[in-house]
Each structure stands twice: as structure tokens, then as C-alpha cells.
Specification:
By secondary structure, the protein is α/β, with parallel strands linked by helices. It folds into two domains: 49 residues, Single alpha-helices involved in coiled-coils or other helix-helix interfaces; 213 residues, P-loop containing nucleotide triphosphate hydrolases (Rossmann fold), CATH 3.40.50. It is built from 15 helices and seven strands. Bound molecules: guanosine-5'-diphosphate (GDP) and magnesium ion. The site of magnesium ion (MG) has 4 residues, from helix 4. Guanosine-5'-diphosphate binds next to helix 4 and helix 6.
Length: 331
């Protein structure tokens, strides 16, 4: 490939499953340079007919729950079943320290070296909806490259689960058996969003604890609305290190998939996700265009001054800024 590969070259590379081409394509999509974006969007548009076919699975849970270890074990198990697995890792802390991704790499060492696997950190932070968008584009590119399963690992920190749910077909919440109230520290909203709950580290003397946690969660779930209509969120136990419970996890993901397909919910969910994506991109673009308009900075400074001096009301000040940007209504 030349210094700057053409869209056609990249397309051929991605479609043939060349991982160097896939990596370049994802890097292009992540770039904020205008020329890169133009090329990336052309490429993704070309590849769109080849996307959508993968199982899109989200895995969330607190740091240390064992997400990366589960992916290593489950990923290798899936490869044994003849599937190709791509893993996208979103970790907000990684952009600052770089440490976590290193940790993830060592946790997924065997998987990362396998020719049927592809592991890629996904940038986090930045603009509104930014995480989900970059990861979504990486996901589409992995689908075009022929991966059957895309697992998105995202550390559970408040807002991120909702973003993850916007990206995948099946959201799996990973928990660890611990002392005390099993529901503590895990926000109810996240439990509600999960399509599958897995209590990990069910090994050694933690097995009874894990079984108790499973019971507690099954009980708690009865009082919550289902994540998906007609679906009762299963609670499983597993051990990523002992590699137990993996087949059950996959069977559950598959039955959830079957339900989504048979009811038409899969299409509905993906369409809804796409429309949310569109509206968040419009919001972002409008905001950017607004901020770049000449005179907007001064108009905001002036509005702040007038509001501070109680010359005008906040809504009036807002209107002034909007007008200065040439966006006022015609009335
Ligand atoms: N005993 C036991 N330890 C595990 C299991 N899964 C992960 N761990 C350990 O838990 C720690 C955190 O695992 P990691 O996969 O990095 O968690 P993540 O932050 O959720 O990705 C590591 O020391 C793992 O070896 C398990 O099933 N059993
Ligand atoms: Mg991890």
C-alpha cells in the first residue's frame, strides 16, 4: 500500500480481511482531520452493504470484574467454534495513563495473537456522543472485514453503559461475587439495561458466594422491567480463569439474538440506534458551526456582561447571541 492508501485500496484490504488495512481504516475513521474524515466516510459508505452481519455484544462491569479475562476465554472458545472475533476496548482511563490497555493486552494475550481475532482499543472522551461514534465506525469496519462477533468492552462508569447499549444488540453485565448487598454499588438502571448478567470468578471458595449472588440477582430482576420485550434477563455464573460457563453465556446471547430476530426487534433496535446517532451528530455539527461563526465569541462576552449588570434577562441575552450568529428566527 502506498503512503496514503486510496479508498479503493483500503476497501479491498478490509474486505479481504487484511488486518493492517483494517487498522489503517479505523485510524482514518478516528482522525479528526477533515481530509481523513472525508476519505473515511467514503470508505465506510462503500462498505456499508457488508456491515450489520455480526453479533454485536457489549460487556460492561466495574474495573477488575474480569471483563478482559472473560473476553480472552470466551473469544478463544468462540474461535474454537469456528467464529472470527473482534474486540473493541473502550477505557476512559487509558487515554490518561495508557496503563489499562497494557493490562488488557496481557489479559488477552493468547487471543490477541490468534489469527481469527482482532483487538483494538477505542478512543474515549471528547465530544458529545464521541465515544459511541468512533467505536461504532470501528465496529462497522470490523464487520466488513468479516468478523462474526464484535465484543465491545467498556468499563462501567455511569454514562458509559447507556452509550454501550446504544451500540450493541446484547448488553452483558459482568459482576463479581462479594460480601454484603449484591446490588450495592451497581446502579439499578444498569441492571435494567442488561440483557444478560454474569457473575464471574465463580471458582475456588467463591463458588457458594457466586451462587448466592446469582440468586439475589434473579430475585431482584423480577421486580424490574425487562431489557427486551418478552425476555427474562438470565443470571449466570462463570469463571473466566477456569473457563467455565462460557458455553452457557454464548447460548444465552444466541437465544437473545433469536428472540430479537423473530420479533423484528433487532431491526427496530438498530434503526433506533442509527437515528440517535444521526441526531447526536447533527447536534454536534450545529454546535460546531455555531461556535465557529464570526462574532459569536464577542456576542457571548457581551451577553455575559449585560446579564451580570442586570441590563437584560438570560433569555434576552440568549436571543442576542443567536441573532449575532445569524440564526435568529424571521419574526
Ligand atoms: N479467580 C478469578 N479471577 C479472575 C477471573 N476473571 C478475572 N480474574 C482476575 O481479576 C483481575 C481483573 O481482571 P480483568 O480481566 O483485567 O478485569 P477488567 O478490569 O474487568 O477487564 C485479574 O487479576 C484477573 O486475573 C475469574 O474468573 N476468577
Ligand atoms: Mg479490562
Amino acid at each position: 500500500m502506498s503512503e496514503r492508501a486510496s479508498v479503493e485500496e483500503l476497501k479491498q484490504g478490509v474486505v479481504s480481511g487484511d488486518r493492517a488495512a483494517l487498522s489503517r481504516a479505523i485510524t482514518l475513521a478516528e482522525s479528526s482531520r477533515a481530509d481523513d474524515q472525508k476519505q473515511a466516510q467514503e470508505l465506510i459508505a462503500e462498505l456499508l452493504p457488508r456491515t450489520g452481519g455480526a453479533r454485536r455484544v457489549g460487556l460492561t462491569g466495574v474495573p477488575g470484574a474480569g471483563k478482559s479475562t472473560v473476553i480472552e476465554s470466551l473469544g478463544l472458545w468462540l474461535i474454537e467454534q469456528g467464529l472470527k472475533v473482534a474486540v473493541l476496548v473502550i477505557d476512559p482511563s487509558s487515554t490518561r495513563t495508557g496503563g489499562s490497555i497494557l493490562g488488557d493486552k496481557t489479559r488477552m494475550q493468547e487471543l490477541s495473537m490468534h489469527e481469527d481475532a482482532y483487538i483494538r482499543p477505542s478512543p474515549s472522551g471528547g465530544v458529545l456522543g464521541g465515544v459511541a461514534r468512533k467505536t461504532r465506525e470501528a465496529m462497522l469496519l470490523c464487520e466488513a472485514a468479516g468478523f462474526d462477533v464484535i465484543i465491545v468492552e467498556s468499563v462501567g462508569v455511569g454514562q458509559s453503559e447507556a452509550e454501550l447499549a446504544e451500540l450493541v444488540d446484547c448488553l452483558c453485565l459482568l459482576l463479581v461475587p462479594g460480601a454484603g448487598d449484591e446490588l450495592q454499588g451497581i446502579k439499578r438502571g444498569i441492571v435494567e439495561m442488561a440483557d444478560l448478567i454474569v457473575v464471574n470468578k465463580a471458582d475456588g471458595d467463591r463458588i457458594p458466594l457466586a451462587k448466592r449472588a446469582r440468586g439475589d440477582y434473579r430475585h431482584a430482576l423480577r421486580m424490574l422491567p425487562p431489557s427486551t420485550e418478552g425476555w427474562e434477563t438470565p443470571v449466570l455464573i462463570a469463571s473466566a480463569t477456569e473457563r467455565t460457563g462460557l458455553a452457557e453465556i454464548w447460548e444465552t446471547i444466541e437465544s437473545h439474538r433469536t428472540l430479537l430476530e423473530e420479533t423484528g426487534l433487532l431491526e427496530e433496535r438498530r434503526l433506533h440506534q442509527q437515528q440517535r446517532w444521526l441526531s447526536s451528530m447533527i447536534e454536534e455539527a450545529v454546535l460546531n458551526a455555531f461556535q465557529r461563526k464570526e462574532g459569536v465569541d464577542q456576542a457571548i462576552a457581551e451577553a455575559e456582561r449585560l446579564v451580570a449588570e442586570e441590563e437584560i434577562t438570560v433569555p434576552q441575552a440568549t436571543q442576542n447571541v443567536i441573532k449575532a450568529a445569524g440564526l435568529g428566527d424571521n419574526s
